[in-house]
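Friendly challenge for the regulars: who can give me the structure tokens for this chain first? No prize, just bragging rights.
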Amino acid sequence: QVQLEESGGGLVQAGGSLNLSCVASRRIFRINPMGWYRQAPGKQRELVAIITGDDNTNYADSVKGRFTISRDNAKNTVYLQMNSLKPEDTAVYYCYAQQLLVYWGQGTQVTVSS
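First reply, four minutes later:
Bragging rights claimed.
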């Protein structure tokens, strides 16, 4: 069993930045994916960014060029640097990891005011 704990959410003005962190309670092997999803009120959960072995990354079109995902395998941690935030980025952001099973964090709220 793996627990994921997110941090770094909060309230920020449009154009601002936030850096989310997610620490896994156990080692996630580098080959296995870790990433971030988000869910806005009344909408389905959607992929934001994911990182897999050899630092291959994939981003939602809506965040390309603004968000950067990175990973520190020694710390079992995945990060999401979010720049040029927009009100439409407002959502609960969930950390994700897959290692035989799929694991989710409890989520951290990101609110971007206009």
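The chain has no helices and eleven strands. Residues 38 and 65 are 17 Å apart (CA to CA). Your move, everyone else.
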